[in-house]
Amino acid sequence: IGHPEIFPLVFTTKTQEIFNCRVDEDVTEENCFKLIKKEDIIQDLKTRATISDFHPVKKVVLEYPGEELLVVFDAKFQYGQNFYFVASEEAKENLLKPPETAEEKDDDKEEENREETPEIHPYKPPVHKPWVSLGSEKEVEEESVKDTVTKIKHMISRVRRKFGAPVTFTDKNASHVKDSYVECTSYQDKTFSIKMLEKDVGVQMVPKVREASTQTKWTYPKNAATQYFPRQLSNEEKEESLSSEKLKEFLTSVHLRMEIALQQNEIMNAFFDDWKALAEDESSSGGKPDVYLKAYQSFTDLRYLKDRTISCICWHPTIYGTIAVSARAWLSYEEQVNLFDKSLLQQSVILFWSFFDPIHPQLMLECPEDIYCFQFRPSDPNVIAGGCINGQVVLWDISQHEEKLQNAKTVADGIKVTAVNMVNASVLNILQYIYMSPSLMQVQQSSTEPPLVRYCAVSSIQNSHKKPVTDIHWLPDYFEDNRMGATFENRAEICVQLVTCSPDCSILFWDIPATKLPEQPSSEKVEEEEIFCMPPDVPDTFKHLDLCWKPLIKINLHKSDTTTEYNPVRISLKELHYHYKTSEKVQSLDTLEVPAKDNPYTDMSTPSSKNLKVLENISTDFFVGTEDGEIVYSNWKMEIDSDSAKPHTQKYTIHTETINTLQRSPFFKDIVLSVGGRNFAIWKEGVTNGPILQSSCSAGRYTAGQWSLTRPGVFFIGREDGNIDIWDLLRKTHEPSHFQNISESMITFISPWIASPKQHFLAVSDDLGVLHVLEICQTLSHPSRNE
Amino acid sequence: AEVEETLKRIQAHKGVIATIVVNAEGIPIRTTLDNSTTVQYAGLLHQLIMKARSTVRDIDPQNDLTFLRIRSKKHEIMVAPDKEYLLIAIQNPCE
């Protein structure tokens, strides 16, 4: 209780005996202190362990610093037990000493005092400590109320006599007063106001702003124009000034400067950017690896092109995206021999395809027989001439359908009939005709069927070739030849003449008389209607020629030493450059002459033939490729003097099989490409000992070839296995620079075309009747510099 | 005449496309081009020469324009001015 150093203990008798603190013998009330040695206690603890009375305080005992422990007899059980054990030295001393002193001193004191003092700590009166401030002064100060300002004392005094004056009260009605409210208003007493003598003022300058608006008067606008024309001197004035002295002086002084400048330019182009030019060459010669022909479209028709092979392709010269193909039936050799015995189950046609409608052909031209080759007329793309398998030449006029072809976007619905070219030649000769009833084919009006155009003229059978017409060309429009063989300038600028060749050893020149406006249309029409019963829909452009058309000139090709004849398959004239749009001035022109017989014509006069001047410079040389693989270079100039009756010809045998292509380069007029059999060759006119380039024999047969229209060194060769070889002479001359497979069957014809500056197409046809249109990639179509 | 000969000589140079002689008012006197083009060239170049000449003289009054060459992508136009006349030549420089 209370004192932590006091531990009450129970001493058993045994313990008391051991330690000599028996009650009432050793330890009495008066002499209650007993000092026991610590060692004894420890020993007792060891011997008696838990039974020892000191066990509860074992720890304290062990820790006790001193030697002797104090045990006090507690007679009054103040601490609960009969003994209590004092644990600290201090307490021991306190207990021992003061009570002893107290005992000594106050022996006389009462026993209570003695008992109390050893139990309680000696009472110490509180020592006066200095006050430690803990911060409460501040709070005290804050809480206290003090006068911050010294109180102002006012003393108000008034004159005494004013006090106590009698007061009178009056009544005033509240409503009389404004607001029913009377107050004693405060007023500013001047005596108490402080005058401000100095003031801090800021000043800002601001422009005076004023908003104003105006309205303009809106008069209606009027268009005003001025017409002017440049001042020009009349001729006399010009003459006058030209002869003036001043001009002479001027020129003498000036021309030197001018010549220097001109010469400078001639010597060198000062602004030529070599660096840029180098870069351009680099890009083209480095070459993209992916030179190829991109498949653009392919056309085929199941009805008309079944079991047929395409014999010729022609692009429409003016209408974009239109291409015509002619089909030819597959004939074996025996059938070809017995040409007239076969009976065609299918009508042979020329089909017109348009890019915009790959499924339906746009137009169909009916042919009397299979067409081997055909061409558009350069001056008038509505006229097409074709050569048949039986040797006839056929003409079509599609001017009715021209608009339709131009508008061919989707399936046509109906035919727009444009004004039919009702042009009849006024000059008509009475010639022999063979009257044949043409098979009537109605022009189909349904929207799914392409319109069928019947041919409007066919040459007479007697006077045509005996064998299939294998090549047909329109002669350029700036010359035409008459039956005498001299060429004349063609003022009309329309192509009127054709040349055809055929393996029957002949080359025929055909003439289409110039069409003139009819002077007596009605009578002629009546006349014609009597003679012919033509179906009403067919344009009668060439009606006069129908079935009575005869060639103008016929050339027979004879071999020089033997009497055998050549069988020309392809012909290439020198002047076969067509100008489709406008005629350009051509420097070199040829004259023609004809050997052999010419047909007896009665006055077949071309109009204005007398006024035309004879052109001297046209070369009459031409190349002919024959069936046997020979290239013949000949001249059809008619020798007026009969000394040298035979025209000088040269022949070359390079190819082993039939020549299938003979074409002039579009860039060089004297370079010719010939393709036949297993190789091809490039010839130059004037080089007579052989081709300038000849390819080696290749594995497959070459079946078609064409020069590229844009790059002078590039040409395309088609093969038997459906591949196209692209040869680029500037890169490699011993093998094709690129080849590409187009179809599985033999390539029959290739035709390149430039549709727009960016799109160059190559039309390729194969044996199965499929027309592939491929897009030529940039590297193949754009020439590099100085190519 | 001499005039003819000189003009022919200039025209015969390599690459020369056209030659025009213009009087002081800008009216062409002699030309090898067609009329409309000539008139256009004469009018435009006349103004240009006036401008060029005034420029040169503004900078230095003692100076005067002797020759003007305009090089364009396609060809070069050369003008030789005088007090009363202009000689214009258009040449295609060879590369």
TrEMBL record, chain A:
InterPro entries linked to this entry: Dynein_IC (IPR050687), WD40/YVTN_repeat-like_dom_sf (IPR015943), WD40_repeat_dom_sf (IPR036322), WD40_rpt (IPR001680)
Ranges annotated as biased composition (Basic and acidic residues): 111-122
Compositionally biased residues, Acidic residues: 101-110
SUPFAM superfamilies noted in UniProt: WD40 repeat-like
SMART domains associated with the record: WD40
A molecular-function term among this protein's GO annotations: dynein heavy chain binding
Main location group: cytoplasm
GO cellular component: inner dynein arm
Superkingdom field: Eukaryota
Gene3D superfamilies the UniProt entry points to: YVTN repeat-like/Quinoprotein amine dehydrogenase
PANTHER family according to UniProt: DYNEIN AXONEMAL INTERMEDIATE CHAIN 3, DYNEIN INTERMEDIATE CHAIN
Name of the protein this chain belongs to: WD repeat-containing protein 63
UniProtKB/TrEMBL annotation, chain B:
Family matches, as Pfam families: Robl_LC7
Assigned keywords, A-Z: Cytoplasm, Cytoskeleton, Dynein, Microtubule, Motor protein, Transport
Keyword presence, Transport: yes
Source domain of life: Eukaryota
Domain Roadblock/LAMTOR2: residue ranges: 3-91
Subcellular location: Cytoplasm, Cytoskeleton
Any single Gene Ontology cellular-component annotation: microtubule
Keyword Acetylation: no
One GO term of the biological process aspect: microtubule-based movement
Alphabetical list of InterPro entries matching this protein: DYNLRB1/2 (IPR016561), Roadblock/LAMTOR2_dom (IPR004942)
Family matches, as PANTHER family: DYNEIN LIGHT CHAIN ROADBLOCK
Family (UniProt): Belongs to the GAMAD family.
Protein purpose: Acts as one of several non-catalytic accessory components of the cytoplasmic dynein 1 complex that are thought to be involved in linking dynein to cargos and to adapter proteins that regulate dynein function. Cytoplasmic dynein 1 acts as a motor for the intracellular retrograde motility of vesicles and organelles along microtubules.
UniProt name for this protein: Dynein light chain roadblock-type 2
Taxonomic path: Eukaryota, Metazoa, Chordata, Craniata, Vertebrata
